[in-house]
Write a structure and sequence with these properties.
The complex is a heterodimer of chains A (114) and B (231).
Chain A (H helix, E strand, L loop, with lengths): L1 H34 L5 H9 L1 H29 L3 H30 L2
Helix pairs in contact in A: 1-3, 2-4, 3-4
Chain B lengths: L1 E6 L9 E6 L9 H11 L18 E4 L2 E4 L12 E4 L6 E3 L2 E2 L2 H9 L19 H5 L18 H5 L6 H12 L7 H8 L13 H5 L6 H16 L1
Parallel strand pairs in B: 1-5
Antiparallel strand pairs in B: 1-2, 3-4, 3-5, 6-7
Helix pairs in contact in B: 2-5, 5-8
Classes of the chains: A mainly alpha (114), B alpha+beta (231).
Chain lengths: 114, 231
């Protein structure tokens, strides 16, 4: 029952919690770029390298990837019936999202290495 | 008044087809069920289910101009011509407008639509307060016509695994009942990706329900209750 719970209630609840964070973070970032855009690449990099900004950004990427995983999995469960095809697409989606996660981690860490 | 009615007799027809009918005498206040009976007098091979004729038995659910509804409480004066009558979508057709509802009933059975009690049977009736009884309003009125579940895309995609709006409404009817003692078991049975969480709040169910019930709202209540019991 426990593994089923992860893909049912917990996936649903976490998708909603991550949605809330994504909405807040994206609104803040849009506001930032409209009203106080960084003056240069170095200024942007310096801003990102601050610990709380890095953390918020990593949390954003983590939330985004988890949110996307639950959403895409839902679509595949609804529309893709053949088991082999569904499994292949799920694995490819998982690997793709994982690669995006590693990449975003690398981007944020490299901003902190001067 | 012009009608286009879905016809399919698996013994004779290779494929379903739409047959045109004309109803000459439209009586004031005529319901679609009466119109279908008149049309059956023109062509006796036309098959459809009906019984009480007043929206209580839930036998004559059909797809009317693209929307599921009960023929007996649908005034034909409100329908655009030609009126297209089809069987419920997403379920096997037995003949013409008669569909196989066994999958729908199987899902109804799967939510254990009866009171489960572990306490010994009381000597007197199981009493409820008026407030406790009020919680069942909007739930117990379901007549199991199947309009909602056969209008639900999630039920079309996974009719064998997803209980569908009707069964989930009934599940909430017993979860909300102060006399029921199987809340944990009921919630456990609804967890996982295919049960409660295959509902994507499309809300076709609430839109088509001929009794004005709201299965989506009931599903929301179950989700909130499950969340409360998970944290």
């Amino acid at each position: 029952m426990s593994s089923r719970r992860v893909s049912g209630m917990q996936a649903w609840a976490l998708q909603r919690i991550t949605a809330l964070y994504l909405a807040l973070y994206i609104s803040y970032m849009i506001g930032l770029f409209i009203f106080a855009p960084p003056a240069s690449y170095d200024a942007w990099r310096f801003w990102v390298a601050q610990p709380h900004v890095s953390m918020a950004m990593l949390l954003f990427f983590g939330s985004l990837l988890f949110h996307a995983w639950v959403g895409i999995r839902n679509i595949l469960i609804d529309y893709i019936k053949p088991f082999a095809l569904r499994l292949t697409l799920l694995v490819l989606t998982g690997l793709g999202l994982l690669a995006c996660g590693v990449w975003s981690l690398e981007v944020v860490i490299s901003a902190r290495i001067v | 008044m012009r009608f286009k009615i879905y016809r399919y007799n698996p013994d004779v027809d290779k494929e379903p087809y739409m047959q045109e009918f004309v109803l000459e005498h439209v009586k004031p206040g005529m319901m679609l069920r009466e119109a279908l009976i008149e049309l059956k007098n023109q062509d006796e091979t036309l098959s459809f289910r009906h019984s009480c004729g007043e929206g209580v038995c839930g036998s004559d659910g059909v797809n009317i101009n693209g929307l599921n509804g009960l023929a007996c409480i649908t005034p034909i004066a409100e329908l655009a011509e030609p009126v297209e009558i089809r069987p419920f979508p997403g379920v096997p057709v037995i003949r013409d407008l008669v569909v196989d509802m066994s999958g729908f009933y199987k899902q109804y059975r799967s939510v254990k639509p009866f009171l489960i009690r572990y306490d010994p049977e009381p000597e007197v009736e199981n009493l409820q307060s008026p407030e406790e009884r009020d919680k069942l309003d909007g739930l117990y009125e379901c007549i199991l016509c199947g309009c909602c579940s056969t209008a639900c895309p999630s039920f079309w995609w996974n009719p064998d695994k997803f209980p569908g709006p009707s069964a989930l409404l009934q599940s909430w009817r017993f979860l909300a009942d102060s006399r029921d003692q199987a809340m944990e078991e009921r919630l456990d049975a609804l967890d996982g990706p295919y049960k409660l969480f295959r509902c994507h709040t499309i809300m076709n169910c609430a839109y088509v329900c001929p009794k004005g019930l709201n299965p989506t709202k009931a599903i929301g209540h179950i989700k909130a209750l499950m969340l409360k019991h998970s944290v």
